[in-house]
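Work Package 3 (structural annotation) set out to generate three-dimensional models for the target panel prioritized at the project kickoff. During this period the team completed the workflow that converts sequence records into discrete structure tokens, so that structures can be stored uniformly alongside our sequence database. As a representative example, we reproduce one entry of 734 residues exactly as it appears in the project archive.
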Amino acid sequence: MCDPAVSSFLTQTLCAHGGRLGLRELQENIGLSALQLENTLSAAGPRRFLVLEGGQVVLAVTDVRVCVRKECDGCERLHLCKLHLMGRCHLGPSSCKYSHDIMNAENKKVLKKHDLSGLSENELQVLLLQNDAFFLPDACQLYNKKGSHCMQQNNCNKLHVCQHFLKGKCKFPRCINSHNLLDDHALRVLETVGIDGKIASNFQAIYDYKHVEFNREQKKVNSGPNHDFEFDRGRNSPCLTSQLNPTIHLMLSVHNYRNDNWKKPAVRRIKEQKTTLETVQCMLDASPSEAVLLIQSSHAGPSSTVPTQSRDRLPTGVGDKDKGKKDSSSDEASKDNKTDNCDEICLFYVWKYCKNKDKCRSVHYHLPYKWEIHDGLYWKELSMMEEIEKAYCDPKNSSMPSKNINFQTMTCSSSLVRRLSTPSSVTKPTFLLTTQWIWYWKNNQDKWIEYGEQEEGNSTTSPSSAIIENLYQADPCAIVPFQAGQQQYELNFKEMIQTNTHFKTQRPVCRRPKFVSSEDVQKIKTGSQRDSSIPNQTCPSHWDASALPDFGYKAVVIHNTTSEYNEIKQLFHQTMKNYSILNIQRIQNPSLWKVFQWQKEKMKRENGGKEVQEKRLFHGADVTSMETICSQNFDWRICGSNGTNYGKGIYFARDACYSHTYCQATLQGHFMFVARVLVGDYVKGNAAFVRPPMKCADKLWLYDSCVDDEFNPAVFVVFEKHQIYPEYIIEYKE
């Protein structure tokens, strides 16, 4: 059985990245070895994590569902307003008859039972949307009852999909009704309720697996010669002559995944083809993991332009005499295309030399970017590389007509196009030839303005591209609040939209790389004296330079003879003299540190250039949530669940003895956080507060935090997690 805390963290990581991740990317995000991750996924099973694409892609799965009853006396489902979770309820929590509180006592019990307590509202939304059919539009009854025919056809606002498939209970391996949520009509209907192609594709994959599993179980129950072939519903002709509805074989390039191409899917519906009885029977006889591969490979036809491994060779374990053998005709091609599923260029190779050579998992190329086109089987390098890159780097270009390339859909004519690049400069700030991403917003004159630059005739500045890129790398699905002048804004990374929170005006947002020519690359390589081993100067100088991860954090034990150790020890023992410290660990999370420093500078600007009041405060946390806090910072939904006397935020204490009452005892002892907190200007809190109150009614300036007592504060409540950095963990005992 998989450790519940690990499962919860894995689910949270997947949902923070849209519900699915490549295996390698997931491994980098959670810090496990390949073997550890493989064992963890295997132990959890497909009811928690579904592994697709020959073991290269992982989807978050759950049995949790939202209660569909209008009135319920109590059940084991979540009780929530469906429209609120999808961001479409306009009634508000006081007027809506359904709950808007995900973290009420009943829902917390349900989430805890399924090891999902650590999920934020956005992460839970992703998980439910790709698992619970309750969030989908209704299936068309005419389509389901009138022989797959609806009089309104494409004008119908309901799904032309098998209603039993959406319940995971279609008993026909080759149903006459569609099981495809990714055709043009289905996607259009889904978009009307706010479900994009990315979520739809995740739902499709999960329910394709459920369909095969359900029919395998049915076959066991109905074993016998009379049940091998089922007849069509209410029809005279046997279902044997019908076709298995194809699913879409998805190209899971991380580049396309992050650039929101699912809104205009580059994948195409593969033409329906006859499926042999042997294939259907093999799907029902195969193991669950093999069945997933068969679902995909049985639908991939030669007309498909989507890359697939199953076209080159059979997956190991499927087939008989050719079991485990590779198709020799593809050996040379597969060598050239070993990185079909990788979109990252090796920094070491671009710079000078990669010691891993052919074993390197990244792409080896002489430039920090590479444009490729898919020929139906493999990715091929595009000609006029620099010309394409230069056009793409200019935010006003949505396409390149001379090459027939559409940068929005990443297509060239009818073929897929992708851009490979080196890692973002903010993730590896000490390296050269990384990709510097620049963020833009569009003004009233349809001119793209770089973030951090002053618009002509306007002295107001916004956060810089580097700051925004840091936030984006920390959470590509986040909605980030910021202030420019006296105006408050929200930047939605997923929708690439900037919204003025007061006037509700919206601006398109664009993320493009800074152009670097081949000549520039040579100049950098020959002219720079800077070495890639120089430590990251944006982190504190006393941090261990050998423990600065690109993603996540490292916990470094502090020696008990250092002044750093004694400083924290003294702070702790002011109110905990009867307890002895076992060890103190410093949390080194470069991404969270940079965001914390950005927030500090932002608050300083808003404070007229005056320094912001910063304190070291204590926080007692549940042991199971410590890993998540170190990786992704505090979350009020969990950390503020023990009390909300002064507002619905994250609670910190001046005195360690206060936080001790919230520390969970373990066999080793107790664990407590020491955090840096930007308390700024504070005011006495109130249980009804969901954010600090305004300083004055005629301006949009808010207090920075709330306290229990304005004159002698002992408890601080923070509503914005960027004001916090989890700096130390103290392990202690009585």
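Residues 225-339, 528-537 have pLDDT under 50 and may be disordered.
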